[in-house]
Backbone:
């Protein structure tokens, strides 16, 4: 596996890697670059949630929360750190090809793929608040994994939970 360092907006360092013979282009990495911030939530130039990982390895709250939520509900099928399994795709690879609205739709509504004598079913999680209330977090974490910015394993350092995340969580979870 080869690594390349790319400096992104706000001094964030991301690592893009050759995975399965496919290298990410500079354009792929720049699409994930931070363009704005709203109460601790980082957005790309299109307004989609993105990650902010500092040079010392500190991840933003949403990336850290996404890691936790992914490993709570998604890794059972999709493998640790989004690397996939024998019966569910590697989401770190899938996020290189699907956009934010598609991700939201698939997770909320589910999806069924049939081909080559094999059937794959992604159940709908739109009613599961432990997933639905944290879709942005999960997306941000997987996006960081997709461009190689977040290594495998638990992030070593995290930013504090912003008030906006606290307020949204209380509202969404009904507390």
Residues:
């Amino acid at each position: 596996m080869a690594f390349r360092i790319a400096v992104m907006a706000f001094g964030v360092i991301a690592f893009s890697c050759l995975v399965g013979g496919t290298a990410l282009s500079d354009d792929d990495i720049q699409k994930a670059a931070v363009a704005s911030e709203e109460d601790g939530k980082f957005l790309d130039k299109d307004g989609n949630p993105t990650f902010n990982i500092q040079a010392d390895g500190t991840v933003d709250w949403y990336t850290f929360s996404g890691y936790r939520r992914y490993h709570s509900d998604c890794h059972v099928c999709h493998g640790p750190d989004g690397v996939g399994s024998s019966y569910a795709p590697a989401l770190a690879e899938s996020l290189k090809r699907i956009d934010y609205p598609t991700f939201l739709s698939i997770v909320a509504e589910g999806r069924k793929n049939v081909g080559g004598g094999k059937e794959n079913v992604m159940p709908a999680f739109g009613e599961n608040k432990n997933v639905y209330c944290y879709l942005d977090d999960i997306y941000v974490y997987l996006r960081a994994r997709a461009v190689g910015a977040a290594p495998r394993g638990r992030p070593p350092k995290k930013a504090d939970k912003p008030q906006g995340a606290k307020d949204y969580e209380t509202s969404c979870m009904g507390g």
Q: What stands out?
A: The domain at 3-160 is CATH 1.10.760.10 (Cytochrome Bc1 Complex; Chain D, domain 2).
